[in-house]
Design goal:
With about 350 residues, this protein is α+β, with helices and mostly antiparallel strands. The protein contains 13 helices and 14 strands. It has 2 domains: about 200 residues, no CATH class; about 110 residues, no CATH class. About 45% of the residues lie in helices and about 20% in strands. The chain has a 6-stranded mixed sheet. A 4-stranded antiparallel sheet has the order 3-2-1-4, with helices on both faces. Helix 1 crosses helix 2, helix 1 packs across helix 8 and helix 5 crosses helix 7. The radius of gyration is 28 Å and the shape is elongated. The N and C termini lie far apart (about 105 Å).
């Protein structure tokens, strides 16, 4: 019985390996963990009002997508996922997003099929040199163009990162693969691939919410948008409701991918190799989102738009020396304590004088 189970396991491993490699010798190397045969592409994709995370397992030798996961919706869990995460954390976070709910499964499947159609073997083969260097400009642009063309929009944004991994180990050890079926690969004819590359496919345009329209209006006024993080200061920071137009607040730029590093350097955030300092943005607008989310916009260096996201009202850090306007309640409280202090001092002085006079 044990021998049969071991034999089945070896057969399963060989079948999985042969999906990715060209020869049995290469398959044995993969099984023995002597060859990292696949790219694990980690994507964050924003399409209109939907945030998404995608995972693509791609054969290095065959230049084919072996497996794909796609989750899109308005879940805050999705928004927290970062492409810089290691493969296990990224796949675990996708599983957590699926378990948390709020996923638009039909839309997730549609985006998956769009990528399957557009990223055919020839396209992936041509992209391999840049993917190897972790230069994702061409790769991201192809995805953006495919989604924008399909939905007749121009607001799709993509962040990407890649890890070179062993496909068999990932597929056998990942909790995501174990518990959730991947996007089904569509049957694609050659002419359909060419059509996807060259023609616009008519789909019903996604309906935008008022929040998304407001955000689009802000973004449209700037040549570039840089996703960043606010810096919190619970004691000396400025509260959401006290933010004033053009008020200076601090932002931290991401510094993981080559693209992020290039942007940070252009905006003057890198002091020296690998050391990144906060940059100053002039506050423009705070847009409450669909649920517990707040979109913060500010004008950054070189005229770019800084965009950050918070799940709840917080106090935002400001440059040193910035005067924070106190709330009416705080001023009233301070005034009361000041008055009480004066009264106490007067009483103490009066007591001392009384003792001196009557001694």
């Amino acid at each position: 019985m044990i021998e049969n189970e071991a034999l089945k396991e070896k057969i399963n491993q060989m079948e999985l390996a042969m999906e990715s490699v060209l020869t049995e010798e290469q398959a044995v190397e993969v099984i023995n963990n002597q060859f990292k045969d696949a790219y694990l592409l980690k994507l964050k994709v924003n399409v209109e009002n939907k945030a998404g995370a995608m995972l693509l397992l791609v054969s290095v030798l065959k230049s084919e997508i072996l497996m794909m996961y796609s989750v899109f919706g308005n879940s805050t869990v999705i928004r927290k996922i970062g492409t810089f995460e290691d493969p296990k954390q990224f796949s675990d976070d996708i599983l957590a997003a699926l378990n948390a709910g709020g996923i638009d499964q039909n839309f997730s499947n549609t985006i998956g099929r769009i990528l399957y159609t557009r990223l055919d073997s020839e396209t992936i083969k041509n992209l391999r040199p840049t993917i190897e260097k972790k230069d994702f400009n061409d790769f991201s642009n192809i995805i953006i163009e495919a989604i924008n063309t399909t939905y007749k929009i121009n607001s799709t944004r993509v962040e990407a990162d890649m890890e070179r991994i062993n496909s068999v180990r990932f597929r056998l050890n990942s909790a995501l693969v174990e518990k959730t079926p991947p996007i089904v690969k569509p049957e694609i004819k050659t002419e359909e691939v060419e059509e996807a590359k060259s023609e616009k496919v008519t789909f019903q345009e996604l309906e935008k919410s008022e929040v998304d329209k407001e955000i689009d209006e802000i973004i449209s006024q700037f040549p570039a948008v840089v996703t960043s993080k606010t810096i919190l200061s619970p004691v000396s920071g400025v509260e959401f409701e006290k933010l004033q137009f053009s008020q200076k607040i601090l932002f931290q730029l991401p510094f993981q991918t080559p693209e992020e590093k290039t942007i940070a350097r252009k905006l003057g955030a890198e002091v020296k190799d690998g050391v990144v300092r906060p940059i100053v943005g002039e506050f423009l607008k705070l847009v409450p989102g669909h649920k517990n989310e707040y979109h913060i916009f500010a004008k950054g260096p070189k005229g770019v738009l800084l965009r950050a996201f918070e799940e709840r009202p917080v106090r935002l850090a400001v440059p040193k020396g910035t005067k924070i306007e106190k709330s009416t309640e705080e001023e009233s409280s301070t005034g009361k304590f000041y008055f009480l202090g004066i009264v106490v001092i007067v009483l103490i002085v009066a007591s001392i004088l009384y003792v001196i006079i009557n001694s």
